[in-house]
Design goal:
Number of helices: 13
Family: Belongs to the DegT/DnrJ/EryC1 family.
Mean pLDDT: 97
CATH topology of the largest domain: Aspartate Aminotransferase, domain 2
Helix content: 25-40%
Bound molecules: pyridoxal-5'-phosphate
Protein name: Aminotransferase DegT
Strand content: 5-15%
Order of helices and strands: HHEHEHEHEHEEEEEHHHHEEEHEHEH
CATH architecture of the largest domain: 3-Layer(aba) Sandwich
Strand order of the largest sheet: 1-9-8-5-4-2-3
GO molecular function, one term: pyridoxal phosphate binding
Shape: globular
InterPro entries: DegT/StrS_aminotransferase (IPR000653), PyrdxlP-dep_Trfase (IPR015424), PyrdxlP-dep_Trfase_major (IPR015421)
Largest sheet: 7 strands, mixed
Organism: Litoreibacter roseus
Structural class: alpha/beta
Amino acid sequence: MRDFSVEAPDLYSAEPIPASAQAAIEALLESGDLFRYTTPETSPAALLERAFAEKLGARFALAVSSCSAALFLSLKALNLRSGARVLIPAFTFAAVPSAIVHAGCVPVLVEVDSTYRVDLADLEEKAITADAILISHMRGHTSDMDAILKIAHTNEVPMIEDAAHSLGTTWNGRNIGTLGKIGCFSFQSYKMLNAGEGGMLITDDPELIARAVIMSGAYEHNWKSHAIVRNAAEPWQNKLPLYNMRMQNLSACVVRPQLDMLDQRVVQGRANHDQAAKRLQDSGYFTVPASLPLEQRAPDSIQFNLVDFSEDQARSFMVNAKENGITASVFGLSTDNARAFWNWQFIDDIPELPKTRAMLSKACDVRLPARLDRAEVDYVADVLIDAARRVKG
Ligand SMILES: *Cc1c(COP(=O)(O)O)cnc(C)c1O
């Protein structure tokens, strides 16, 4: 039996920013050029865009202030009409419907099943009256992208990917975020690359990137310093609002060296996840949905479903785990959880979504950062299994 009085691993603290980033930051502070358009072509923000596009295999990239900004600019770049219906999975972070509302569009929630994936029958039905599909790969879980792309194609609507939490994930060998018209990523501290705040928009479409670059705040002729197709941008001169969602050079300096560490983090994160998943699944108290055959995950957390727990038992389970230093939240049971769709009271007519609600009342979320070693992962699994055993006997 494990001694739980030994301190539990801290699942929330960040990793140090690599020394190479610190050198770049030092040089930047020396020059004072924090604004990306002071030295346009060679600014850290421009260099990060090029490196990111190359890493992902995308034609164009735009560095912005957050993934929320990238999602907003995606909808604006697609020139969706005001009131356009944008489908999203009902299991996502509140920032996603918020970006849609911000863009003057209407979020339409699609059911999500007990494996955290989009309910394809519901998507198919709602796609008939949709203007766009925004697939949020929540917690890095990938739905059947071939089926989703087919639905988007059949209904002639663009598909955007919210890959905020999916950097490094692949579908059938292709990077998540490159499957749709536009892919959006986050560099907020709880994501694979940490800038505190920051985001990236990628696309292969010269028209979309040109419009997004200008609207991100490339005022006057600043768009000329971007790796874009000039002919696509010129017609939009002075014709688009400037929303000023640029990334500043400091954030770009913090992120760029971390890009070289991504592959390593993906391997470690996946190993940690799979180690914990096996332990939890074998305990009999939990089910851990397997990845799809075409999906290669890049997890930095684990989600699992409580098997035959009443609501009271689920609450006791969370208390027990917390007692031993591990925060395990059942999405639907923690107060004001921003990932529970009924808490998105800023949207009109929140629908009843029984499947998603049932999933959220059983699905538990635990952070599992890539930096943990095998012993620490075992500690986390032991705490969770012990917490369940004390409830279920
Ligand atoms: C973090 C996250 C976002 C928001 O990203 P920000 O950069 O904080 O705006 C959106 N969607 C998902 C799935 C996320 O995990």
